[in-house]
Write a structure and sequence with these properties.
The complex is a heterodimer of chains A (116) and B (112). With 116 residues, chain A is mainly β. Chain A is built from no helices and 11 strands. In chain A, a hairpin with a 5-residue loop joins strand 4 and strand 5. The chains are: A mainly beta (116), B mainly beta (112).
């Protein structure tokens, strides 16, 4: 079974530019999550899709961030325009639909974003 | 809130036991998790425990949960150099989207 794949693994852009991160979840996983870790800090929740619908986007920092999951398969996270504080590692994770049990997330390797 | 705290660093000698600690503030969590991140890799689930349990053991790993003190620990017996990584604890809740809330991670360094 292929895991969660993320692209690019590392992106270096200048402040004001646009970057789009992509995540391919495990096939058949309805849940898709985006998280971000800023250097030395906790991994923070950004948003959660169930299939193509945004279930919870309460963690999105501001309207410069736009996430989509067309057709309920892969997802993209666009940052436009990027600011210095957006630097960090963006993790994508997916899981099968859960009801009340443990939510076993499978993570991708992350996309490191550096904004200069 | 969902504050989850961990110490940032831990060093142990190869063969010793490692104990990584985590405290959380919201007692309504339903599951607590331990994830491991090796360099250049994603987070890998090590184990999780239901909040009504006190302990869970899985080979070299022992998870202890003190719900009264809101304290979770991960003990690694006979620590090996391959155990060097960042360890994250996380919690999830019955309500909402069952999202996971993570701590800062503890970087474990195993000294040969």
């Amino acid at each position: 079974e292929a895991g969660v794949t993320q692209f690019p693994s590392h992106s270096v852009i200048e402040k004001g530019q646009t970057v789009t991160l992509r995540c391919d979840p495990i096939s058949g996983h309805d849940n898709l999550y985006w998280y971000r870790r800023v250097m030395g800090k906790e991994i923070k929740f950004l948003l959660h899709f169930v299939k193509e619908s945004k279930q919870d986007e309460s963690g999105m920092p501001n309207n410069r961030f736009l996430a989509e999951r067309t057709g309920g398969t892969y997802s993209t996270l666009k940052v436009q325009p990027a600011e210095l504080e957006d630097s960090g590692v963006y993790f994508c994770a997916s899981s099968q639909r859960t009801v009340s049990g443990a939510n076993v997330l499978t993570f991708g390797a992350g996309s490191r974003l550096t904004v200069l | 809130g969902e504050d989850v705290e961990q110490s940032l660093f831990l060093s142990v000698r190869e063969g010793d036991s490692s104990v990584i600690n985590c405290t959380y503030t919201d007692s309504s969590s339903t599951y607590l998790y331990w994830y491991k991140q090796e360099p250049g890799a994603g987070l890998q689930l090590l184990t999780y425990i239901f909040s009504n349990m006190d302990m869970k053991q899985d080979q070299r790993l022992t998870v202890l949960l003190n719900k009264k003190d809101k304290h979770l620990s991960l003990r690694i017996a006979d620590t090996q150099t391959g155990d060097s990584a960042i360890y994250f604890c996380a919690e999830s809740f019955r309500t909402g989207a069952n999202n996971l809330f993570f701590g800062t991670g503890t970087r474990l360094t195993v000294i040969p």
